[in-house]
Task: inverse folding
């Protein structure tokens, strides 16, 4: 794809995102659903090859979305509700994977390993529309934290389980003990990478008084923690969760009020852009 075509495609996608956002405010329909529908309609009128592979989408869009969500979670409230969140996130994802995989295998005749891969693929929840509704209705903060926290951790759990199920489907062999140990290794390793990098960046930010530099450091942290953990074969998603939580709580203490406002506005825009493009691309690729 030529440079001009890439620039034109990006401009068109951003224009579509802005127009859809304006229209749904008047129609009061879910924004993400509207984007998928618009993308689907556009693909019928004129097929668009965005040229993004699943790996590239994972690298480009997942880190900022996860980081922004973790950045705004209250660590104290999260800690108080952590047992419930982890119960929903880890066992919930495993049970969903098994149930969906079993039903798909039974009803379609698909081999169980392949059906479990599909089950793991759709087991994570996306509370974007629900959280937006929560903010409109003014529901208790504890409920919002539980839903957002569960979503963050089940994203990490689902990706780890998906990897294990793909390995099972490819090799045809499955060891429960080995899978549990691998799950723990990948999860704990990802959290450790995120904590280490998040602590380091939070310390640097506390010694810097320039909002442009501080925002740049958070961008480096969001993508850097993901890439570092993945390169070590740990969970990049959980690394970003840990890094975001640390900087959204400890890191903010070293920021001026102006930096906090600018930082929140910046990451809100980045998350909006990433989330919008993902759902639009889903519609275009259906």
Result:
């Amino acid at each position: 794809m030529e440079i001009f075509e890439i620039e034109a495609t990006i401009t068109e996608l951003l224009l579509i995102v802005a127009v859809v956002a304006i229209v749904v405010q008047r129609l009061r329909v879910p924004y993400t659903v509207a984007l998928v529908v618009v993308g689907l309609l556009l693909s019928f009128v004129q097929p668009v090859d965005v040229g993004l592979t699943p790996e590239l989408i994972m690298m480009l869009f997942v880190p900022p979305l996860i980081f922004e969500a973790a950045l705004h979670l209250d660590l104290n409230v999260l800690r108080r509700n952590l047992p419930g969140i982890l119960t929903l996130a880890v066992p919930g994802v495993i049970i969903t994977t098994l149930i969906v995989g079993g039903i798909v295998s039974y009803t379609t005749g698909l081999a169980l390993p392949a059906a479990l891969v599909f089950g793991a693929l759709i087991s994570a929840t996306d509370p974007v529309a629900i959280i937006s509704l929560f903010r409109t209705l003014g529901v208790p903060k504890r409920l919002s934290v539980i839903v957002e926290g569960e979503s963050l951790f089940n994203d990490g759990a689902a990706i780890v389980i998906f990897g294990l199920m793909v390995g099972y489907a490819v090799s045809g062999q499955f060891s429960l003990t080995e899978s549990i140990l691998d799950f723990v290794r990948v999860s704990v390793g990802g959290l450790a990478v995120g904590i280490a990098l998040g602590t380091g960046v939070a310390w640097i930010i506390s010694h810097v008084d320039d909002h442009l530099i501080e925002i740049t450091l958070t961008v480096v942290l969001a993508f850097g923690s993901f890439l570092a953990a993945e390169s070590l074969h740990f969970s990049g998603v959980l690394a970003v969760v840990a890094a975001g939580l640390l900087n959204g709580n400890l890191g903010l203490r070293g920021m001026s009020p102006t930096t906090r406002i600018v930082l929140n506005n910046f990451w809100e825009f980045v998350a909006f852009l990433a989330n919008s493009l993902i759902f639009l691309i889903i519609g275009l690729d259906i």
